[in-house]
Write a structure and sequence with these properties.
This protein is of the alpha/beta class. Helix 5 runs parallel beside helix 6 and helix 9 packs across helix 10. Bound molecules: iron/sulfur cluster. The site of iron/sulfur cluster has 14 residues, from helix 1, helix 5 and helix 8.
């Protein structure tokens, strides 16, 4: 039996930077707080908690005073920075540079459209932390498009500036662009495609992995947005693709008659976890023989 780990899977540079910075900070300060889960992966969160990193939610953040708190790669809305200033919190800001740029562009659009009837539209999931940060730059007034019907919230007679969460699927985004184009005036519609190449470039290697293996195990946290998107790509090219978040979910029947097994993951899946999955598969399939 052959097991292949997708070389392109694992932390993107934005997540890598956040995790490395958190590890360095905890080594310097012995304990550190991080606002929200640094990655959508419970196994990695557990490892970091064991190092001394405490993950806090917004309510806890608002009660924190005179401490150091790390901001993760997803970025934050302006309100977070205001709370930090009021509470004398020192921020270690690891917002990904691609997300920061997108935040600035949304803010510029907001300035450009101020006083008019223009609409800032974000293609993304309303509960995703990155989208909350982006919406903050739009003064919490962006129209969020998550599913096809949401397009009916738009007023096509008024200017539309369209942005996207960085981890969305490129063909879904292009479909949305075409739908808006068909109902809006050309001069009213501005498209800002900021889908991250570190996610979209992975599609090709996932397709290749899906097509060259009998079974694909896709490892990602349950809340990983790019994990769900990349898994959909994988599943389209190999019916025997399985999404798992922990080793416990691996079952013997998944590998029935399989001789080639591929392992991949999202931008928040640590390499060590994919390697552990590989070892566990070897054990399970060893039991089978
Ligand atoms: S997916 Fe792209 S935009 Fe998001 S954190 Fe990673 S590198 Fe940055």
């Amino acid at each position: 039996m052959e097991i292949t780990i997708d070389n392109n899977a694992g932390f993107c540079f934005g997540v890598r930077n956040s995790v490395d910075t958190a590890e360095k900070a905890v080594a310097d300060y012995h304990s550190i707080k991080c606002l929200g889960q640094i990655v959508h992966n419970d196994e990695e969160i557990m490892r970091l908690e064991n190092l001394g990193i405490e993950f806090i939610d917004y309510e806890q953040f608002k009660k924190t005073k005179n401490e150091t708190v790390l901001i993760r790669a997803h970025g934050e809305p302006p309100e977070t920075y205001e709370v930090a200033k009021t509470n004398n919190i020192t921020l270690i800001d690891t917002t990904c540079s691609i997300v920061s740029r997108l935040q600035r562009e949304i803010y510029c659009s907001r300035e450009e459209l101020s006083g008019g009837n223009g609409q800032i539209v974000i293609f993304g999931s309303k509960d995703h932390p990155e989208v909350k940060g982006l919406n903050g730059q739009a003064g919490e007034k962006a129209i969020l498009i998550h599913k096809e019907n949401d397009i009916n919230k738009l007023d096509f007679t008024k200017p539309i500036h369209l942005f996207t969460q960085t981890t969305k699927n490129i063909s879904d985004f292009n479909n949305l662009v075409n739908k808006i184009k068909s109902r809006s005036k050309v001069e009213n519609f501005k498209v800002n495609n900021k889908i991250c190449a570190h996610v979209s470039n992975r599609e090709e290697s996932i397709i290749n992995l899906a097509q060259t293996n009998d079974v694909v195990i896709f490892v990602a946290g349950k809340n990983s947005s790019n994990g769900k998107m990349l898994f959909d790509v994988c599943k389209r090219h190999n019916e025997r693709s399985f999404y798992i978040s922990s080793l416990k979910e691996l079952r013997m029947d998944i590998f029935d008659k399989a001789s080639r097994i591929g392992i991949s993951g999202s931008t928040s899946t640590p390499k060590w976890l994919m390697e552990a999955v590989g070892l566990r598969i070897s054990e399970i399939c060893g039991q089978q023989n």
